[in-house]
Amino acid sequence: MKFPRLTERLLIAVPGIAMFLLVLFKLPVIWGLFLFSTLSLLAGYESIQMCTPRGLNSISRIFIAFFCGVSSYFIAVDHVMQIPALILPGAAVAITVLYSSGPDHSRRRMAGSAGLASLYAIGFGLMGRLFLNLGPGVVLVMLAICWVGDSAAYFVGVSMGKNKLMPRVSPKKSWEGFFGGLVGSVVGSLSVGYFTDIPLVPLIVLGLAGGIAGVYGDLFESALKRDAGVKDSSNILLGHGGILDRFDSAVVVAPVALVILHLFGIIT
């Protein structure tokens, strides 16, 4: 039985996880915020590259990406600029698209670019906020939900998948992989959450809800990639594609985690 791109996935996954552990656990808190802002910046750049491949120069793309990073920072630190920060990526997209190409095709370009850039800016910003409020453990729980769930879905789907989940959006995803991934998400949540102060029941709920939300985020980005006619958002992460590909689940799990942890009284 063959598992495509497994070696490439491991080559980038192992040092990537090590980097996260180093930044979140060993370096000052500001480095954690810088990490999330940088990921948001890169995701913003990829969003523009994918949804608006023509009509924007490099300066415009960097301008949008910069505001995605700034937006994530203000969302994370609960600054007075937090509410304005929510619209910064979309506003930057609108200004640059209208300036560069006028009204022609602007609706589709702005909707895809602004929506995707804003989603990742908010998602990474909320990761930073949870990091500041509850420490690095909760971030690892979210990543475990996504990454263990994704790995479980991958192996179960390749070995057992027969019934397609949404073939028009992502032909390789199956219902068998979905349920395997859901189990993996709960296992990931419980395994990493054991080392945190989060109780058992919230961890199980977080694993289930996060696992479902993560699949939605993955399918959402897959639909945009299929419409754009690309396989990966970029090749920056080798076998994992780009930042959009690797964190498409995590940015959707972050707000779900915030809501669940608030409902259980763990975060206020």
Give an overview in words.
With 268 residues, the protein is mainly α. It has helices spanning 6-26, 29-51, 58-77, 82-101, 106-134, 136-160, 175-193, 200-228, 243-246, 250-263; strands at residues 164-166, 170-174. The N and C termini lie far apart (48 Å).
Indicate the topology:
Layout: H1 6-26, H2 29-51, H3 58-77, H4 82-101, H5 106-134, H6 136-160, E1 164-166, E2 170-174, H7 175-193, H8 200-228, H9 243-246, H10 250-263
Helix pairs in contact: 2-3, 2-5, 3-4, 3-5, 4-5, 5-6, 5-10, 6-7, 6-8, 6-10, 7-8, 8-10
What count of domains describes the coordinates? Answer: 1
Discrete helix count = 10
Strand percentage lies at under 5%
Strand arrangement in the largest pleated sheet: 1-2
Question: What structural class should be given to the helix and strand makeup?
Answer: mainly alpha
Strand runs, count: 2
Low-confidence stretches: none
* Mean pLDDT across every amino acid position: 86
* H-E string: HHHHHHEEHHHH
What gap, in angstroms, lies between the N and C termini?
48 Å
User: What Rg, in angstroms, do the CA atoms define?
Assistant: 18 Å
- Approximate helicity band: over 70%
What about the largest sheet? 2 strands, antiparallel
The best one-word shape is globular
Q: Oligomeric status of the shown chains?
A: single chain
Key words describing this protein structure:
10 helices; 268 residues; mainly alpha; two-stranded antiparallel sheet; single chain; globular; 3% strand; 76% helix
Short description:
The longest helix is centred in the middle third of the chain and has 29 residues, at 106-134.
